[in-house]
Design goal:
Elements (H helix, E strand, L loop, with lengths): L2 H7 L5 E6 L9 H7 L9 E4 L5 E6 L5 E6 L5 H12 L2 E7 L5 H14 L3 E5 L20 H12 L16 E6 L10 H14 L3 E6 L3 H13 L6 E5 L7 H9 L5 H8 L4 H21 L4 E5 L5 H8 L3
Parallel strand pairs: 1-2, 1-10, 2-5, 5-6, 6-7, 7-8, 8-9, 9-10
Antiparallel strand pairs: 3-4
Helix pairs in contact: 5-6, 10-11
Length: 317
């Protein structure tokens, strides 16, 4: 079932969903099941599965020179989606990214997902490689999420890369990302919303936001979207703070602000256990307000660790 259908069928009730990471190469899919099992009692209608681009590593050759090798540390998104749907009978939402994939590889992945009965995809540009300062697309791939969105929409119309193939039409419900505090590369929030509107006009059916810790940022973002005729569901993404390091890591990596009250509370913590308790309570209060204000779904970034999110959900769903 499509994400938008789940939201419509909920008839105003806020749904619970979450995102998981594929296990590191060599680890078992049981790692994923162990992370999902404690959250299933809250009846998530769908579970997101991230896609991770390639990374570079250097191996020393016999002649002493270094060889640059490409590797994917977290493969398996398509297989994990199949495993989730088979085991839990809920919809899996794979992330489809630009970085590290050419158009042919993207098309093949989408065909595999369609064969598996996956009804939803979340289309993202993806991050730059850690060793590179800026995003560099595959020479035969997409530079922007809007271009990738266009490819998925063409498959939905039965248009394949090789024009002589015009048979099966896919029927993906397509989500895109939104940034209540703007994408860090956008010159302004107004510009960011302009490009978001373009994706919706193209055919994106729902939006999932970047994490935020100040609900006012989300409410203001939704209001600005509505004023710009962006009327699709806007799902808030939430990440509970679990360590003291998150005070510096989250703003630097995800370009989000932490409210003064949250920072003050974290600075009083003596250890990570105290920070985790502050993070859980903050996320619970965030979630309650979002539910009261009619958020269609609360979507939690779990990092495949369910204990903290379970404690949050226990008080809400």
């Amino acid at each position: 079932m499509k994400v938008t259908d789940h939201i419509e069928n909920a008839a105003g009730k806020t749904l619970f969903s979450f995102e998981i990471l594929p296990p590191v190469k060599g680890e078992s899919v049981q790692n994923i099941f162990d992370a999902i099992d404690p959250l299933m009692e809250f009846k998530p209608p769908f579970i997101d599965v991230t896609y991770h681009r390639e990374e570079y590593m250097y191996k020393k050759r016999e002649n002493g020179l270094l060889e640059k090798v490409t590797t994917r540390k977290r493969p398996g998104t398509v297989g994990i989606c199949a495993a989730i749907m088979n085991k839990y009978h809920v919809d899996a939402v794979p992330h489809i990214i630009c970085g590290g994939f050419n158009k042919e590889e993207t098309e093949n992945a989408l065909i595999d997902l369609d064969f598996l009965g996956v009804d939803n995809v979340l289309v993202l540009r993806g991050d730059a490689i850690k060793s590179e300062g800026r995003f560099v697309p595959d020479p035969e791939g997409h530079s922007y999420a809007s271009e990738l969105l266009g490819q998925v929409l063409e498959l939905n119309q039965g248009k394949y890369i090789h024009e002589e193939i015009t048979r099966n039409k896919t029927n993906f419900c397509i989500g895109v990302a939104g940034y209540p505090e703007k994408h860090f590369e956008a010159p302004s929030l107004k510009t960011d919303i302009k490009y978001l509107k373009k994706k919706v006009e193209m055919g994106a059916e729902y939006i999932v936001t970047q994490m935020f810790f100040d609900n006012d940022k989300y409410f203001e973002f939704v209001e600005k979207c509505r004023k710009n005729d962006i009327n699709v569901p806007i799902i808030p993404g939430l990440k509970p703070i679990t360590t003291l390091k998150h005070m510096s890591i989250l703003p630097s990596i995800f370009h989000v602000d932490l409210p003064d009250d949250l920072v003050d509370a974290l600075e009083k913590c003596k250890d990570n256990e105290g920070a985790r308790e502050v993070g859980i309570e903050w996320a619970i209060q965030q979630s309650k307000e979002l539910m009261e204000r009619g958020a269609p779904v609360l979507h939690y970034y779990t990092m495949s660790k369910s204990k903290v999110v379970r404690r949050i959900a226990e008080g809400l769903f």
